[in-house]
Amino acid sequence: MQRAQHILESVFGYDAFRHSQAEIIEALLNGGDALTLMPTGGGKSLCYQIPALVREGCGVVVSPLIALMQDQVDALRQLGIRAAYLNSTLDAASARATEQALLAGELHMLYVAPERLLTERMLELLDRSAVSLFAIDEAHCVSQWGHDFRPEYQRLSVLHERFPTVPRIALTATADARTREEIIAQLQLQQAAVFVNSFDRPNIHYAISEGANPREQLWRFLEREHPEDAGIIYCLSRKKVEATAEWLTAKGRTALPYHAGLPADQRQTHQQRFLREEGVIVVATIAFGMGIDKPDVRFVAHLNLPKSIEAYYQETGRAGRDGLPANAWMAYGLQDIITLRQMVLGGEGAEQYKRIASNKLDAMLGLCELIACRRQALLAYFGETLSESCGNCDNCRTPPETWDGTETAQKALSCVYRSGQRFGVAYLVDVLLGKSDERIQRNGHDRISTFGIGEGLSGPEWRGVFRQLLAQGYLQTDLDGYGTLRLTEKCRPVLRSETTVQLRRQRKPEKVKKPRAAPAVDLDPLDQPLYEALRERRTTLAQEQGVPPYVIFHDSTLREMAALRPQSLRELHTVSGVGEQKLERYGEIFLAVIQNQDLEIPESAD
Ligand code: ADP
Ligand code: ZN
Question: What is the reported pTM?
Answer without folding.
Answer: 0.86
